[in-house]
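We read letters as residues; the integers encode the fold. Take this protein.
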Amino acid sequence: MSYLLSLFLLCLLTLGAAIARPAKAEELGKETRPLPVIDMHAHIAGIGAGGSGCYVSPGLRDNWRYAIYLKAFGVTREELEREGDRITFEKVSGALEASREVDGAVILALDGVVNEAGELDLERTEVYIPNEFVARETARYANLHFGASVNPYRRDALARLEQAKADGAVLVKWLPAIQRIDPSDPRLAPFYLKLKELDLPLLVHTGAERSFSRADHRLGDPQLLRQPLELGVTVIAAHVATTGRTDGETDFDRLLRLFPKYPSLYADISSLTQLNKLWYLPKVLEHPEIHDRLLYGTDFPLIETGLLGVKLVSPWYFPFRLGWGQMRGISGIENPWDRDVALKQALGFGPGIFTRPASLLKIHRTGEPWHAGPGRF
């Protein structure tokens, strides 16, 4: 154990020596910024309790990750079975209501794998969170917003997109590596054109996928996104393609080449402060040419996920980028969203990233008209 601890500390020292200390972070404050701060990448838990329609495969339920995810949501399997899956929305909304910095979050549905007949195939699906469930529950809370998910291989995919838009969806989410979607498939052109017609951005996981027990990492290659970009779809590359390699290149480098050519391409910074991605954060900060395309997201509940008392996200992983007082102060912030904002600000992400999702997704504060405003990195 002492050897592993020493090795871990050595990695932190090496990382810290490689990057410079940023300027002092600016305060956001809900009352002073022109646009609300929206976490555009948050997940929800569901086991099918209370008629939610959610599904978790036996393989994932038996996986060590499953119990950790439930704990991060602040629920137990027994509580879900007793109260129903809807209890997770109540908990997430309550935590956001207590946040001083974040106004709301986009809660993402997750469609499953589709068979050759264009129907849901639960035998090949790890997690299924229906649009109907997420749309219904987010509508109960002013600070939760509906992020739809439609597998484009569904027989009625276009009708599902129209229904999602009618139900208030602000975007559509894909996780190709587990949904078995090839974004470059020419058969998907009508789906992309419908997205453009409905003004629905497409949030696509890019890079390797390691949150599930099985995945096809080849489908996380950012270069596969050229087709929807060519057709004018607003595409958001989740996690800035951190982790993953294709054809001898990092997926991050493959994503970078797309930004100059496609003005409708964005990326979210969810997961960048995770322990397994520390090396990527300075790479993103070193590319100012993409900073006005970056969007705030947390990948909740991963910002609260931990194992054996060690959290996946912590300010203590940045000892040379942050001062001792900063690390101690940020780690003492109780609210997970406030802690996440403070950490990302201190690491160098400016106000524009935090307010840009509201502008792009046209999300306004309750009772106030939506208005675009200038943001800066």
Observations:
- The radius of gyration is 20 Å.
- The chain has one domain: 41-360.
- The first strand starts at residue 38 and ends at 42.
- DSSP finds 15 helices and 14 strands in the chain.
